Protein 1
Amino acid sequence: MCGIVGYIGENCASPVLLDGLKKLEYRGYDSAGLAVVENGEVQVVKTKGRVADLEQKLQESKPLSGTVGIGHTRWATHGAPTDANAHPHTGGNGMVTLVHNGIIENYIALKSMLETAGYTFVSETDTEVLAQLFAYYYKGDAVAAMRKVMQTVRGSYAVAVLTKDCPDRILAAKKDSPLIVGKGEGENFLASDIPAVLKYTRDCYLLNDGEIAVLEKDRILFFDSTGAPLQKEIYRVTWDAESAQKGGYKHFMKKEIAEQPKAVRDTLSPRIVNGKVELPELHLTDGEIRAVGKIHIVACGSAWHVGMAAKYILESLAGIPCETDLASEFRYRDPIVREGDICIVISQSGETADTLAALREAKRKGAHTVSIVNVVASTIARESDDVIYTMAGPEIAVATTKAFSAQLAVVYLLGLYFARAVGRLTEAEEQAKCASLLELPAQIEELLKLDEEMAKLARQFSAAKNVFFIGRGLDYAISLEGSLKLKEISYIHSEAYAAGELKHGTISLIEPGTPVVAIATQEALFEKTLGNIKEVRARGARVIALVSGEHKEVSEFADEVIHIPQADATVTPSLDVIPLQLFAYYMALERGCDVDKPRNLAKSVTVE
Ligand code: F6R
């Protein structure tokens, strides 16, 4: 995710900013920049690429000696990673210079309002809109302008602002995106993450949503959202730099599991407007959607599991035939793809070799290609006709969690969008489905509270040699993911089966004590899956059952029952996956495995 740093003091700002940006590199980024106040003027230097490229550019330009500045590493969301889209951005003809993390959901409407008011834009970013909006409201009182901005924008943000007329001050504010202030002696710091300031100070203030900070060399002022002054307590950092990078979590995987409510919210909420799905990224008319013969869905690994869920979801909502393929199979089996078909490719990295080849194959045969990708301007994103970005932020742990959940969120949006286009969804139905989608982040938050329970289960089951996951329909798709998560990080052999298929061979592997994770959250199929639970239990399996709602009868046949909040049947995969991720995580921990970097695996698989 993007990183913010700020410095105000007596030392040269640019080395401090560069040092802070290097400490934030682990968050993932694709461009970097900084702004330093030089003799009353704000100088901006920025570039696509690494912090090392920024350093090089600084060496080649006039040396910066100013003692006040802000810096940024950008992870592209709106617009490709280019020099122009890199932060800082300026507003009001250079009066305002600003860096931003997060997503401004209503930036299109704000941009058009500002354009009408005579403001011009040089980048594709939502951040430049923020900079111009600040300039629009700025009449000499920076806190008042910031409050106006905060009242006007929708979305998430952490921002740091310099104004040319007041060069000895940095202004900062946040909502749903972290920001901390580091307190020094005759100098103060700002950062999106503690590691950036740890070399200089361990005394920090953690900004809360809606709060504004004003940093000067010798003092820091805080204001609440009404503009009233605030007294804040110092938070003394006792962690080391490495654990601080993980935001206090032991592993990136755990941090990313915890980030899922935000990833899902950021992916869904900008695309649900007044109870209606809006996908401006999709260049297909309703007529073209109605004429589609087949939707091909291709992906690898966990993204393929999203594709498996997508088949059930798109067919049941939109009634369009769907076929989900492993990209490595699709590319070589000479698939029957017809002119006018749609091919959806799903990839976190946007660089997976097989998925890219499958995309090219579908394109060559005349399909309209739509990719669901996390990394902006990656090859798959660039080569597909349309791209719908997941807003999960960079994923560092090899085993995907938050990108998986964000991909599922896009699939729900596509399902509703297609269903409306083909006339299978009334306005009222769409309103209701959108409302249930918007409840997902809070429900995921609730499920994260199962943490201790899943850790306890892992202590009981970590000696297992084989684990089976069973489910029907969407529960089968999520069984595949639960099984992969477990095996890839804990190295325990595990298989996922459509619950009705188990007795056609695999059930011979069930012996007394074999763990079976049974996912039974599809209400319409509950009785059937319960029957399969009874079958494995009769052969001595230790059953962990996931059920939606009460279902007291399950405890008679399951050793452990995990209750999933009741939700629209379509969206249960987003809920079921949370305890399964936690289970895999704790099983791996119990077995002393390297959770973030499992053996033999790479985050981006660019070879076939
Ligand atoms: C499993 C996992 C992999 C990826 C797969 C596809 O936890 O992360 O199975 O899902 O390698 O990668 P992307 O989504 O980058 O195409």
Protein 2
Amino acid sequence: MSTATSEACVQTTDLRRRFEALRGAARKADLSYRDRVDALRKLEQALLRRKDEIIQTISADFNGRAAEETLALDLFPTLNEIRYAVKNLKDWMTPRSVSLGWQFWPARARVQYQPLGAVGVLAAWNYPLFLGLAPVIGAIAAGNHVMLKPSELAPRSADLLASLIGELYSPEFVTVVTGDGKVAAEFSALPFDHLLFTGSTRVGRIVMRAASENLTPVTLELGGKSPALIHPDFAIQRAAESILAGKLFNAGQTCVAPDYVLVSENRLSEFLDTSQRIIARMYPRLVDNPDYTRIINAAHYRRLRELTDSALARGSQALEVNPASEACDETNRVFPPTLLSHVPDDADVMQEEIFGPILPIVTYNRLNEAIAYINARPHPLALYYFDDNSGRVRYLLDHTRAGGVTVNDCMFHVGQPCLPFGGVGPSGMGQYHGFDGFATFSKKKPVFLQSRFTTLGLMRPPYGATARRLLKFIIGR
Ligand code: NAD
């Protein structure tokens, strides 16, 4: 056996052993309400205590990430998930009485949420804290034991998560596994009671295939091309400010970032001019500016460069906004905000999810044409619509499908624990955050409580006139 193979075997055995220990503990006893609240509160305190370290670690993975982005888009939504769960957990855990049809009176029924057992979480790198911990929070709230595998593309953040979780919980309760794509593949083949994966649609298919061997239910949080549609009557300045902020937070490395924008044909040049001004105001410098986040690695940087180059080769026009004319390359990993117009539909940049600070602008003449453009493509993870007319907003909501929608802004429907989050079709399946996370990681158990005064026993064989009369009565003729 080669050294590499024997190392892989050791790793696999270790992963399996850690999983068995976790699942064994999950089978022994359910976590009480108090246990769950204590576990969540401990996490909240540790996150607050290690706030500065979190900011520095994530920034190091990105070679520079705005502290404000880590606070607003990683730390705050994570704390918000914890606080919302703690506030509502008692209510979520209380079995809910439901009313039975009169035919079954005086029996009673209720629905009880129970932990599934051992939950696996495979996370992406772009918001390493929130994407790793939000599913863990939902799984703990639901009373499960959890194994988290953060992405190898943000290795320092993965180690930080391992240290954070390791200091708070026993490895049989919540544990973090680090490693590359091979470890991730082994992880997805473990017989979890539920597996939540965040990542690309391509890897989502592989994960679902692996999980199917164990009949492990999956929640897939995937990506796709999320459009932003501006109605011709809407102020370009207002729309562009929201769209560009949504696009350029985390340098576009956001699953729900607006991927491309649909603007009416006669307002294209106004959109380009306005956007250029807004970007220059937000980021007067790119390299020498802690507000502008960098690309996660050189390979992704090259991928983005190839997307723009191939669009240019296909006749597109690119407007690169680099106000201080700084040198941006794959060494510093600063990718300038780039507006693309006149892009052919079959260019790569209009086929693949961009996941970077490039914004193609597609023009349309009539609103229905823009809606048809969206509907002719895979259901997106997010959809943004800019319009002050509530009738038209309702029309758009009724005539399009998307994982979630924000009207007159970008991304705000995400990170709200009172709203479910998840894609539809190729952008994902299932949902979590808040109660939906609790429900996703629970078995929703129906319980029927028969009464000693039931008359339904009269319908048992041998069937006679009474059973037939009773059946006629309950059927209605
Ligand atoms: P990715 O699919 O390349 O990788 C995600 C994870 O999968 C990594 O942790 C990796 O270790 C693991 N992995 C790799 N090969 C695997 C295999 N064979 N089996 C099992 N796991 C494997 O995605 P990425 O580059 O990390 O993230 C970018 C994508 O994620 C984008 O498409 C983006 O839209 C999507 N995303 C979605 C959400 C969401 O909440 N819906 C959030 C963030 C990112």
